[in-house]
Amino acid sequence: MRFKDISDINESVIGQYAQETNGLVLEISKPVKKVLLPGELSNYLKEHSSVADSFFRLSPERQKEYAEYISSAKREYTKFERLKRITPLIVKGTGPNDKYKREQKL
């Protein structure tokens, strides 16, 4: 329905349309993205439940960044050191690469 002038608007027709749509509820669901966690990170989160709560509140993108950061280390010692290094960042709710991102100007 298009209106060329304000006088073309029929209030009763608009009221009927409003009543018809009153009961409609739209549900939009996004597919849940599953992030594959390396074993070291998974075990660490099982042992530290407060860190796990913070980790799973992060966006899937940030979870993936942390998973890649841990899995990219070759030695077990390096993986353990990275886990200790990222724990405060996870609790804080930031990503591992956030310090390199520019702040957006509004």
From TrEMBL:
What is the top-level taxon of the source organism? Bacteria
Please name the source species: Lutimonas vermicola
What protein am I looking at? YdeI/OmpD-associated family protein
